[in-house]
């Protein structure tokens, strides 16, 4: 936005976005859902336009082979794994669906379907967009910088017009992502406040709108850290937190179905034992590509959480409070 409105300071954009996202989440999940639907429709129009315009670039004599994106003689697996550890963050968000069961008519049926659809549709679109982008701009060494790679692709495919369209779609996508993230996080914090894992003011509900007012305002206030911390630090914390979550989700499946439920038939061992074990090992593989700074920040984060746990249980003199998320 700085490029299009240089006179407006970036702090104004950050504060405005946080205020708007927080207001919409206070007003209710239905309004957030309508806004997200409009934004998604806009992004689909952009994606269709990008693909259509890319055909002209791909059809030129200088275009690479259609199989070029899948193989290169200079292919280096460490580079791929390092990129995968970052790109896996693109799939963050499907898990947020599980926190919206209270606003769903048939959560036991609809929530699992929504999670799978988000993952499959999102993954398909990521692969398609990456594939088309590589064909349109095959030599990554010619990018101005890693941060402007997408803009370089848009400029080659459709010039200034497509760059402007891309910027609008990108900003809209960031806004939609912020709305969904705040909605899910505020409901988790609400449940933690309700079950006395966090102070009671996290569980304050808006009498007028029926939304978790306390936790939503707190999340909005914490979002103001965007004015102080760097994007690199934020990405580091997200990388660590995401891989921790992915690891424990796989381990939790094994414990719940094989240990607690004693489902030891061959089909259950394959579904609840082998598959999550593979997922856990793949996550460990991604762990190996994280930087030392990421581990320093992440372990500091874990230490703070453990210190709060010691305070909450009075050095484990009391049991850890149960967190009930079924009605969040």
UniProtKB/TrEMBL annotation:
<dbReference type="InterPro" id="IPR002293">
    <property type="entry name" value="AA/rel_permease1"/>
</dbReference>
<keyword id="KW-1133">Transmembrane helix</keyword>
<feature type="transmembrane region" description="Helical">
    <location>
        <begin position="157"/>
        <end position="180"/>
    </location>
</feature>
<feature type="transmembrane region" description="Helical">
    <location>
        <begin position="269"/>
        <end position="288"/>
    </location>
</feature>
<dbReference type="GO" id="GO:0022857">
    <property type="term" value="F:transmembrane transporter activity"/>
</dbReference>
<dbReference type="InterPro" id="IPR050367">
    <property type="entry name" value="APC_superfamily"/>
</dbReference>
<feature type="transmembrane region" description="Helical">
    <location>
        <begin position="294"/>
        <end position="312"/>
    </location>
</feature>
<feature type="transmembrane region" description="Helical">
    <location>
        <begin position="36"/>
        <end position="55"/>
    </location>
</feature>
<feature type="transmembrane region" description="Helical">
    <location>
        <begin position="213"/>
        <end position="231"/>
    </location>
</feature>
<dbReference type="Pfam" id="PF13520">
    <property type="entry name" value="AA_permease_2"/>
</dbReference>
<protein>
    <submittedName>
        <fullName>APC family permease</fullName>
    </submittedName>
</protein>
<keyword id="KW-0472">Membrane</keyword>
<feature type="transmembrane region" description="Helical">
    <location>
        <begin position="75"/>
        <end position="94"/>
    </location>
</feature>
<feature type="transmembrane region" description="Helical">
    <location>
        <begin position="237"/>
        <end position="257"/>
    </location>
</feature>
<keyword id="KW-1003">Cell membrane</keyword>
<feature type="transmembrane region" description="Helical">
    <location>
        <begin position="12"/>
        <end position="29"/>
    </location>
</feature>
<keyword id="KW-0812">Transmembrane</keyword>
<dbReference type="GO" id="GO:0005886">
    <property type="term" value="C:plasma membrane"/>
</dbReference>
<feature type="transmembrane region" description="Helical">
    <location>
        <begin position="114"/>
        <end position="137"/>
    </location>
</feature>
